Amino acid sequence: MKVDIKTREYTTVSEVSGPLMIVEGVEGAAYGEIVEIETPTGEKRRGQVLEVREDIAVVQVFEGTSDLNTETTKIRFTGETAKIGVSMDMLGRIFDGTGKPIDGGPEIIPEKELDINGYPINPSARAFPAEFIQTGISTIDGMNTLVRGQKLPIFSGSGLPHNELAAQIARQAKVLTEESEFAVIFTAMGITHEEANYFMRDFEQTGALERVTVFMNLADDPAIERIITPRMALTTAEYFAFEHDMHVLVILTDMTNYCEALREISAAREEVPGRRGYPGYMYTDLASIYERAGRIIDKKGSITQMPILVMPQDDITHPIPDLTGYITEGQVVLSRELHRKGIYPPVDVLPSLSRLMSGGIGEGRTREDHSGVSDQLYSAYAEGRDLRDLVAVVGEEALTDRDRKYLQFADEFEKRFINQGRDEDRSIEETLNLGWELLSILPRAELKRVAEEHIDKYLPKGE
């Protein structure tokens, strides 16, 4: 046994299990402390203390535990937590999941070193999210509006175009009412090389990379790295937002891969599993990520989050979407049925919801008719969808003229309002005007959710 008290270096590894190492005879180790590991071949790796009991420390190794043994592996406890060096030079750069540049550019010269675990925003210091963020996508802007400081996840399914939607939002998102700079932090966890190349090519070709900072954890990177990737991204976002007054949109894809990494570590620690094998503390862990979004009173900047997750077997009651829904303020749900019809983006507006929408729309923010148009479109589309089910039973001949109008409305709503080009950036004016065009299909007497003065002002004449 070798212990160097000055540097706290140990060669007392007693066990290696999955991504974890157990070190014995440790003095003064702390939870969350960063350790440096030297393999028998001289390779340097990093890890983090997960658990401390008496003189034993459980360490998770970021680069994986291959080639480690229990005899000659050296462990040095640094006495510091995980930190990232941040700078405004990070805009337009691409980093791996541990914050190292992978775009061939120079190393970042940090202006500050910040703890990646961050600090929760004091509830009494939070400002209510109230400014509209335009994504250029009608189903989000018109029906499930994203506001500055909100957490609005996208619930997708395997094979659905959530990656294309994420890239489109990253390219198009903008704040209309403020002059402050707008930035996007794009965080990918557990994605394939093909998906990574798609995102990079898209950002570079469209010029969006200038205002995007990318953190990229690939599928063949160690799963343990996925635990720190979103925290690296959010620490950078907090620096941009609260020290440089920027509006930051953080896109996190795919949170399902993050939760799978949590489950893997929990299993390696032999913890008692919760629902479907996920750790019982997954709710708390997810909250430690999602709750880092928001606005602070007397600060100009803000952090808005759009986590993206793939629902296993399209099951919205699965623990990952279920817990995410509890913590966040709504959800945008993608539909396999709309995708089969060739509609992009296949957003199903009926189960989708933005709980903070009312605070970010209306006169001075979007337009005075926004709330009424959204409610009327939702109501008419829901009725048209119900009538489709009825037609399957009784046939179209049994429908009234009014019913046929609603059926026509539902079809046109999907073809023209939900469906749009992958590069089509619709302004909120265009979205609302399109909504009025579709409402003109219905008899005026059916428009009960919009104000009469708005009907007179915006409904296309001659209808």
TrEMBL record:
Stretch forming the signal peptide: none
Domain ATP synthase A/B type C-terminal: 360-458
PROSITE patterns, A to Z: ATPASE_ALPHA_BETA
Topology of this chain in the membrane: Peripheral membrane protein
Subcellular location: Cell membrane
Keywords: ATP synthesis, Cell membrane, Hydrogen ion transport, Ion transport, Membrane, Transport
Any Pfam family: ATP-synt_VA_C
Source species, domain of life: Archaea
SUPFAM superfamilies: C-terminal domain of alpha and beta subunits of F1 ATP synthase, N-terminal domain of alpha and beta subunits of F1 ATP synthase, P-loop containing nucleoside triphosphate hydrolases
Domain annotation ATPase F1/V1/A1 complex alpha/beta subunit nucleotide-binding: ranges: 136-354
Subunit structure: Has multiple subunits with at least A(3), B(3), C, D, E, F, H, I and proteolipid K(x).
Record-linked NCBIfam families: ATP_syn_B_arch (TIGR01041), PRK04196.1 (NF003235)
PANTHER family, sorted: V-TYPE PROTON ATPASE SUBUNIT B
The protein's name in its UniProt record: A-type ATP synthase subunit B
